[in-house]
Amino acid sequence: MTATPVTVTVTGAAGQIGYALLFRIASGQMLGPDTPVRLRLLEIPQGVKAAEGTAMELDDCAFPLLAGIDITDDARAGFDGTNVALLVGARPRTKGMERADLLEANGGIFKPQGEAINAVAADDVRVLVVGNPANTNALITSANAPDVPADRFTAMTRLDHNRALTQVARRAGVPVDEVRRLTIWGNHSATQYPDLFHVEVGGAPAPALVEDESWLLDDFVPTVATRGAAIIEARGASSAASAANAAVDHVRDWVQGTREGDWTSAGIVSDGSYGVPEGLVSSFPVTSRGGAWEIVQGLEIGDLSRERIDRSVAELVEERDAVRELGLV
Ligand SMILES: NC(=O)c1ccc[n+]([C@@H]2O[C@H](COP(=O)([O-])OP(=O)(O)OC[C@H]3O[C@@H](n4cnc5c(N)ncnc54)[C@H](O)[C@@H]3O)[C@@H](O)[C@H]2O)c1
Ligand SMILES: O=C(O)C[C@H](O)C(=O)O
């Protein structure tokens, strides 16, 4: 066991995802069985009492890896020395709210959090933005933390990736573990493009998945892209346990590496690959080695995929332009 615990900050710690996430982190499922963790729970003042309740429950689990818990409503205290920051707390869209209002309201959260990360986080800080609109919130956070390398800021599309894996496994009639090389491109929104053109099933290419265009375009893509709304409709609340699970998967793979012969999907700052404008936070096929994401290069992108990727990227450009106009980036 390493002597120094890793400090993990979770914002929105008293929310639904926070409740599903903190216990997984404290049990070692995110950073591994040999890494002690110190948790920082960052909430707004109204959320602090509930976060204290969650902390009591964490204490009551007697997790051997849990080295301590701090609760705060102050961003600087919350990110002080943090190594991994999970930005979950966000302003949800409410009735009658336009997208620009939503971006502005979230700018009020992610701009100061970016500034605080810039000022006080550890040199090796890695940030995952879960709170929606996740890609553009990650862009705002990164833009307001100019001293932290941009490749440390990511947005979560792992839930979309996992959703797509299950749909493909069902279709192919195989265990989910046999599905590899699937990609989510673009925005974590209904415009995202889950791409099956490079998928392998049981170690072999699976052309049958894309040959049935009506299944692909009328069933698979919309099922994955609108799954969040379907969960809200069924549960009366947005996905929480599956979102927490995806956050654990994302950080685990980032820190510990992706498996050989496979890749995953993550929203990362574009270097211009695949025609995605540099600087946008877009989902790509990625591998991780040595604690850094790398975009999988050289994939052939056909006309159908090109059109779908461009559509989602155009939405990201619109969001970026809107937050630029608001002076948030
Ligand atoms: N990227 C994804 O795949 C994905 C999936 C599911 C949900 N989400 C998003 O995750 C976010 C959280 O979802 P939830 O179900 O936990 O919501 P929730 O409303 O249950 O919890 C959000 C928590 O954030 C807190 N909060 C608000 N502003 C804050 C701030 N400035 N600092 C710290 N905490 C703050 C609130 O007090 C609340 O406790 C939402 O934006 C949701 O849309 C993203
Ligand atoms: O919270 C939402 O709007 C949905 C969420 O992003 C999801 O994909 O489940």
TrEMBL record:
Q: GO biological process annotations for this chain's record?
A: malate metabolic process; tricarboxylic acid cycle
What is the primary gene name for this protein? mdh
List ligand-binding residues for substrate. Answer: R93, R99, N132, R163
Query: Where in this chain does the record put each Lactate/malate dehydrogenase N-terminal domain?
Result: 7-146
Q: Which residues cross the membrane?
A: none
Reactions this protein catalyses: (S)-malate + NAD(+) = oxaloacetate + NADH + H(+)
Q: Where is the catalytic site?
A: H188
The protein's name is: Malate dehydrogenase
EC primary class: oxidoreductase
Q: Which organism is it from?
A: Sanguibacter suaedae
Per the entry, what this protein does is: Catalyzes the reversible oxidation of malate to oxaloacetate.
Q: Kindly give the InterPro entries that the UniProt entry links to this protein.
A: L-lactate/malate_DH, Lactate/malate_DH_C, Lactate/malate_DH_N, Lactate_DH/Glyco_Ohase_4_C, Malate_DH_AS, Malate_DH_type2, NAD(P)-bd_dom_sf
Q: Which Pfam families match?
A: Ldh_1_C, Ldh_1_N
* Keyword vocabulary terms for this entry: NAD, Oxidoreductase, Tricarboxylic acid cycle
